[in-house]
């Protein structure tokens, strides 16, 4: 099996894994926001952090739609450079988002992970 043929399923699996983690964070936003706030917080602080995380997750899901459309239409499916960069960025995002959830990182760290992982994959889009 050539390297290009093995990159396509690996890229799809990392895209799917990253999407599942983002959707999981989206559904469990309340728990993630509570871990970002001090032990005693106001309703206003909660709503502010909720809005910030909601915007970050919405931007992420919007970019997923664009990337999956390009991938599934075949436009970038067989580009080996794009596949390798996509594998690296989405694998890194999966690992860092898993740490974000399990280790209860601050909510602002989501934007750092987003910008680092997105900057790697955007060089060949």
Automatic annotation (TrEMBL):
Record flagged with keyword Glycoprotein: no
Protein name: Transmembrane protein 107
Gene Ontology terms describing biological process: non-motile cilium assembly; protein localization to ciliary transition zone
A Gene Ontology term for the protein's cellular component: MKS complex
Species of provenance: Sinocyclocheilus grahami (Dianchi golden-line fish)
Subcellular location: Membrane
Keywords: Cilium biogenesis/degradation, Membrane, Transmembrane, Transmembrane helix
Main location group: membrane
Membrane topology of this protein: Multi-pass membrane protein
InterPro entries hit by this protein: TMEM107
TM spans (from-to): 12-29, 53-72, 84-105
